[in-house]
Amino acid sequence: MPRLPHSSPQTLHVFEALLAAPDAWRYGYDLSRETGLASGSLYPILMRLAEGALLETRWEPAEQPGRPPRHLYRLTQDGAALARSRLARRAAQAASPAPRLHPRTAS
């Protein structure tokens, strides 16, 4: 069975972090620190979510001259709904008992 899109453990960590304040704009660096994800894992997730219209992005001008602008992210309404759905699904799976294996009977 194929994996459900946007349900990897790493993406779920990003969803958790963004849902902590769903209307707040977040820096990628802060998300990286909060989730423990390296930039090589985090930014592709953010790009996929943005391409799917699940995440809004914007640039913030640098506070100091000579510094680069910073990219900000926040969930769209659809993104927040999907994040809640995926996290609820994970919680339900964690709460359900693992299938029991029955020993074979000797014939």
Structure overview:
The structure is a single chain. This protein is of the alpha+beta class. 48% of the residues lie in helices and 13% in strands. It contains four helices and three strands, in the order αβααββα. A three-stranded antiparallel β-sheet has the order 1-3-2. Helix 1 packs across helix 4. The longest helix has 19 residues, at 77-95. The two termini are 34 Å apart. The model has no long low-confidence stretch (mean pLDDT 89).
Keywords:
107 residues; alpha+beta
- Overall pLDDT: 89
Shape: elongated
Structural class: alpha+beta
Distance between the termini: 34 Å
Walk across the major sheet and give the strand order.
1-3-2
The main pleated sheet reads as: 3 strands, antiparallel
Provide the fold topology.
Elements lengths: L8 H11 L6 E2 H8 L3 H13 L3 E6 L9 E6 L1 H19 L12
Antiparallel strand pairs: 1-3, 2-3
Helix pairs in contact: 1-4, 2-3
